[in-house]
């Protein structure tokens, strides 16, 4: 089976196919999913940079819901920025990605490495922009795993 990555930052649940999405929720988690204003990233695509969250959040888990406070976002945003810059420089050359531990997607990513790098660079730019804008209005963004 070939894994195809969805490099979109979904703003509307109707854009999502299935339910295997990470949800980024402005504010603390309050027991509801698919909330208007949240953003959604396909599970396989999120796993390409999930290691950033594993590294910076002691209580992070692929299957958990984690409230991430503003100070905790700063090193995550820095790592996302560094990742984007690296992806824009390499142009199809192999690069170490901060893969998460839950899924093994490295081989699938490398099957179309140049296109996947461009897609991931675009997604990280969109994600950084949304996070930065959202953090001006909220002191917490929750990461809702599966």
How would you explain this protein's 3D organization?
This protein is of the alpha+beta class and 146 residues long. It has one domain (22-28, 37-144). It contains 5 helices and 4 strands; from the N terminus they run ββααβαααβ. It has helices at residues 43-46, 50-56, 70-90, 106-111, 113-134; strands spanning 21-26, 39-42, 65-69, 140-144. The model has no long low-confidence stretch (mean pLDDT 92).
H/E topology pattern: EEHHEHHHE
Biggest sheet: strands side by side, in what order?
2-1-4-3
Question: How many domains, as an integer?
Answer: 1
Helix and strand content put the structural class at alpha+beta
- Average pLDDT taken over every residue: 92
Apparent shape: globular
Distance between the termini: 21 Å
**Total count of helical runs of at least 4 residues:** 5
Ranges with pLDDT <50 over ≥5 residues?
Answer: none
Mind sketching the topology for me?
Blueprint: E1 21-26, E2 39-42, H1 43-46, H2 50-56, E3 65-69, H3 70-90, H4 106-111, H5 113-134, E4 140-144
Antiparallel strand pairs: 1-2, 1-4, 3-4
Helix pairs in contact: 3-5
């Amino acid at each position: 089976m070939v894994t195809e990555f969805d490099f979109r930052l979904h703003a509307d649940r109707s854009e999502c196919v299935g339910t295997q999405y990470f949800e980024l929720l402005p504010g603390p988690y309050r027991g509801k999913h698919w909330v208007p204003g949240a953003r959604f990233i396909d599970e396989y695509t999120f796993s390409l940079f999930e290691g950033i969250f594993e590294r910076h959040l002691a209580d992070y888990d692929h299957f958990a819901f984690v409230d991430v406070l503003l100070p905790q976002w700063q090193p995550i945003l820095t790592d996302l920025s560094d990742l984007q810059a690296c992806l824009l420089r390499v142009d199809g050359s192999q690069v170490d990605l901060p893969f998460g531990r839950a899924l093994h997607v490295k081989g699938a990513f490398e099957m179309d490495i140049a296109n996947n790098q461009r897609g991931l660079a675009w997604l990280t730019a969109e994600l950084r922009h949304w996070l930065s804008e959202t953090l001006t209005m909220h002191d917490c963004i929750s990461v809702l795993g599966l």
